[in-house]
């Protein structure tokens, strides 16, 4: 990522680079916390519960923003988030009975949701005030350093093979470096609440990928959940665009 952003970083002053890196480092701490809480939580809870509880960062973003920044979200944004959250519940939860039984993994995953909410807000704050390149770079530096340090607590065990190497390259470059750089760039031009709402599409794309690649069957709950998520996003986007047109 540093090589990719080399041109932009050369045009910035050292003070500008440092301010962006500082913001990225703060965001990276919460991103690492989210990774850690989610991964450890998956050891004790189901993937469905983890997917839903992690997605709770979407309604948490406007609530935390209202408390910290005193920015009250619009009624359409709150409505869209409520509809999208309901869609995530339909899409990811295996059953209401299992969900109502909280365990250690669920509590850890809620910590993940809180961490991701703060990460999204911090990235939005600094990307709109500093050079997004240094913000994006700073958060990955923080995650990389904290991840390496955590290996002291739990040394890794890996059976190296070509598939594992390709998985590391794919997730490291495309799902991490490229994705978070693109997110940091995009959050310059939108609010944290709307960014969180757009992130509600994550389980929809995950489902489509498993259907296309993994052969998973499309169920009525998948269709209903996906439609609710898309409907929640369209509620906000169509209303916002209509207001701008007027």
Instruction: Report strand %.
Output: under 5%
Note the total helix count.
12
**Radius of gyration from CA coordinates:** 19 Å
Structural class: mainly alpha
For the largest beta-sheet, the strand count, sense and barrel status come to:
none
Give the fraction of residues assigned to helices: over 70%
Low-confidence stretches: none
The total tally of domains equals 1
SSE order: HHHHHHHHHHHH
Strands, count: 0
What does the average pLDDT come to? 84
Distance between the termini: 41 Å
What would the principal axes of the Cα set say about the shape?
A: globular
Give a written overview of the molecule.
With 246 residues, this protein is mainly alpha-helical. It has one domain. It has twelve helices and no strands. Helix 4 runs antiparallel to helix 10 (192-198). The model has no long low-confidence stretch (mean pLDDT 84).
């Amino acid at each position: 990522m540093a090589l990719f952003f080399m041109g932009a970083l050369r045009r910035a002053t050292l003070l500008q680079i440092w301010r962006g890196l500082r913001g990225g480092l703060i965001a990276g701490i919460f991103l690492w916390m989210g990774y850690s809480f989610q991964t450890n939580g998956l050891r004790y809870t189901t993937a469905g519960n983890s997917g839903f509880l992690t997605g709770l960062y979407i309604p948490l973003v406007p609530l935390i923003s209202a408390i910290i920044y005193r920015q009250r979200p619009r009624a359409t944004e709150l409505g869209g988030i409520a509809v999208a959250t309901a869609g995530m519940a339909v899409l990811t939860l295996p059953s209401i009975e299992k969900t109502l039984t909280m365990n250690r993994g669920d509590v850890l995953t809620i910590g993940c949701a809180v961490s991701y909410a703060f990460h999204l807000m911090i990235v939005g704050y600094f990307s709109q005030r500093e050079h997004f390149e240094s913000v994006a770079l700073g958060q990955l530096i923080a995650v990389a350093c904290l991840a390496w340090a955590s290996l002291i607590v739990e040394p890794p065990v890996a059976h190296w093979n070509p598939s594992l190497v390709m998985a590391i390259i794919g997730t490291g470059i495309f799902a991490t470096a490229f994705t978070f750089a693109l997110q940091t760039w995009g959050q310059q031009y939108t609010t944290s609440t709307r960014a969180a709402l757009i992130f509600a599409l994550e389980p929809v794309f995950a489902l489509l990928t498993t259907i296309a690649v993994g052969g998973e069957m499309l169920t009525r709950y998948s269709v209903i959940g996906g439609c609710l998520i898309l409907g929640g996003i369209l509620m906000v986007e169509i209303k916002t665009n209509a207001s701008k047109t007027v």
